[in-house]
Amino acid sequence: MATVDYRSLAGDILQGVGGETNIASATHCATRLRLKLRDDAKADTAAIEKLPGVITVMQAGGQYQVVIGNDVPTVYAELGRITKLTGDAAAADEEPAQHGNIFNRFIDMISSIFSPVIWPLAAAGLLKAFLSLATQLGWLDPASQTNVILAATADALFYFLPMFLAVTAAKRFKANQFTSMAIGGALVYPSIVALAAQAEPVSFMGLPMVMMNYTSSVIPIIVAVWLQGYLERFNTRVLPSAIRNFTTPLLTLVVMVPLVLMTVGPVTTFAAQSLSAGITAAFTFAPWLAGAIMGGFWQVFVLFGLHWGLVPGMLNEIATQGHSLLMGPLLPAVLAQAGATLAVMFRTRNKARRTVAGPAALSGFLAGITEPGIYGVNLPLKTPFYFGIAGGVVGGAIVAVGGSGATSFVFPSLLGLPAFSTVGSFALLMLGTGIAIAVAFLLTFFFGPREAEEAASDAGTSVPETAADTHEAAAPVPTSAATGTTSRTATGTVEVLAPVAGQAVALADVQDKVFASGAMGKGLGIIPADGRIYSPISGSIKAAMKTGHAFGIKSDDGVEVLVHIGIDTVQLQGRGFESAVTRGQQVRAGDLLAVVDLDVVTEAGYDTTTLVMVTNTAQLAGVDPVAGGTLAQGETAITVQV
After folding, report:
1. Does the predicted model carry a pTM greater than 0.85?
2. Are residues 311 and 238 part of one domain?
């Protein structure tokens, strides 16, 4: 499939079905391009089936289904580039609801928004680290114009981060990118920053406002652009076409900027001040507890902008007593995340992730710049971020018990270490920081996710544009039909387990032409006895459909398995399905993949038969499904010779 010209294939399919005017709508699932045609008679099915990259064509459920397999997101995206069938407006209306717990969905959202800017963040972080090193060693005068220019070069991305995130968030939430940038620009506009710094009360049209500093912030602009998308779509529906083009952005700016300043600022400031008061009080009666909170959750505070409530307290401590105890636990907090990032660099087999993790860890250790590591590595993979928190908790408690603090407001880093050297026990400071790094590094190295080499990266590198556009992973390649690869000599045996208990059904008897033909590989169907679907094999999740009805898993032995819950259940748009895994996640055989309400599927008129197929059958020495009978969940369903 690598030699297929996807743009040409999309154009040939378009021509084969009678052109854009004959297509009422276009969507896709794990393996198929699903078209609703206005006139089926105009479609030249025989010609489409002969196209390179097309496995077969079938008509079912009122849809004209072109079976492509692994590359269907790519073809779908190319179809969108040459037609108006898959544009942003349509995608916004048709996008299925996301599944999974709220925190995982939040992390996935943050990761996808940061993904395009991770490389620039890593570069800027390294430049800041090198500049800090140069000034520390006396190679560069901090007051020189050269340093001013280079510092501006390194700091600009971090300072104006809301404007950069406005662009990527706009793509995520289907909002106008330039209007989003204008909102982000207003948040970091010099006079707004100045208002946040002044002591006098601030008001807007007579209404009092609580200001905060939005430079380098993350959550406020994301919330703003999310709301912007809804406001723009509302304006588009209700405003007359004669004035819509300029009135929509005008109303959006006039409403959104004051709204964000009047809501996000007060909420964040109140939460930050409460947090600051609580932690400051904790340093009096339980320093270890305050240190554990600061050490473990400082990076979380930064993520939500709550750290701004603690910064004034730090500055006040330095001004009044010459040092800040609040800053002591920040050293293990920051370096623990850098340690987790470093462990990912050694552990992951994903080259794209590794190339981000290396410089991100360096900038974290040297200059305390953790954004590239957190947003490009730790947070997308989740467990390294948690392990960084764990290391920070332990290290922060030790540092606080030793009474360590900082004599100046510096980035917690190796280069900033002199500022921490004269307050409290320097030995406990180094011990706590070392333990924090060790805990985060070792936990991540031994228990963190071990991504496959070809796994799509959330780090902003080597991610196909089509995957980003569709928010969907490709299903495993149906090599039996797509490549014609011949089987090889067996070197071992792999057992594919039944993902659910039920009655085994021969693939040929499945009520779906494509699956029954074996075009997607050998396997079987299982009429499920319950709605809990488990992984049939240990490996990496290569595909996790948003609708929760299909999953692709690749084992370390190279066996690619597709679990497809029900026949044509993509039409339910996720109703009745709850996914328990995400793309890129490592699973073991028997781990829960999804929970499906079988009654919902049945009442909607769909077949609940769950397909289990080895999609790279032709690359393997042998694939032997069980002949029939009742299977228990976890019982061998397919024996594979690799």
Report:
1. no
2. no
